[in-house]
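G., the chain you wanted modeled:
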Amino acid sequence: MNDTAATYSPAQRLGIIVSCMLGFALDLYDVLILPYLMPSIQRSMHISLAEVASITTVTLVGSVAGGGLFGWLGDRIGRKAALQWTLVVFALASVGSAFAWNFASLLAMRLVLGIGLGGEWGAGMVLFNETWNPQRRGLGTALIQGSATVAAAGASVVGLWAVQSFSVDWGWRVGLLTGGAPVILAVVIRFWMPESRAWEQFDRTRRAGLSAAPRNTFAGMFSKRLRAISFAAALWLTAYMFCYYAVVVFVPSLMLRVLHTPPEVVRAATVTAAFVGGLSYLVMGWLNDRMGRRFGAIVPAVFWLIAFAILFFAPDARYHGSMLAWPVFWLPIVFAIGSSALGVVGAWLSELYPIEVRATAVSAIYMFGRAAGSLAPVLVPALAAAWGGSLPRGMLIALPAAVAFLLLSFVLPETRGRGRTARALDDTRDRPRNTRDETLLHNGQRR
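Predicted structure as tokens:
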């Protein structure tokens, strides 16, 4: 099946990448604003740090169900339709969570929100990869993932503004209410973004009985030829997500509550990290189209080790008037460079799987890793307590995950340069057809 982008106009391709960037940014914004609201939620609902951190865990666990559900829908009803529904679900759930009346209702709404979030990344990323030039996928997916830096900056600005401008009981509600914005993007996608031509062609051949696509796409992603890749990819994403959330979720608390840093300094560090991280996404995206997907994962992730060195050697360093001389100022910045390793994930995963299971595999694996990594917000406080209440020591639990991510990056097959997504893995010897069927399948015609 030819995954060519030649049938799309420049305006359509621009609309696709902008929509995917906005979708992912709004997705991550809803997750990253929570750390800035955690102190307010904790005081408002009179709950512990571990309980309020579990809100993030519940959200990310819900994303597993959402990843499986919307990934399956993406393979059955189309990439565009699945993307629309994910945006609607998590936008409405975000608004609902702003009106939670107790801790249990907040957890319930964040679980539903997580289901919506779970499908957004996979649906958008697969749609993008099926419409973009294969030689520029690395840069394109890095642009999409790089919107995470905009999400991080927006979450810090809005989150701090909300808790400083409103009462303890209303600050976090106003912050969560802003998460309803994706419903506008869903309307835009409905009327102005095209469906994947590759998926439409595949759907025609499937309906015509010319495709050997598995009925159960979950089983298909663990077929004999894909099983090892699926397990390795799931562990790889788990390692990344565990490391990411073990640090990102607690950096605001470390700066504001532990080190008593002025909010304006925290804001400056966060915005600087967003800018540097965004630049890193672009540079690494450009390089992984030229040096390979593995290069795009390993090189930035090395910067994570530098961030952990800061946590280890300067865990109690406080701000004394000079941001540049304050070691913890550099923590989110260096960590943001390391986190740009995520920029290669969309292209790499999409290129590993054939079209008939692609949305299911990409979405399920990404969200499995995200959910498994969500254990970090629960384990970090527990380890911190064991270390005498030292939050920086608790955050160091992410170091083994960073090392595992680096090692597993050497295990996944390199895919740069494939003209057709997952062509090398799509072993047609397992799918006998006659010559006429092959011709019809290639042309996307009905029998």
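The longest helix spans residues 10-45.

Shout if anything looks off.
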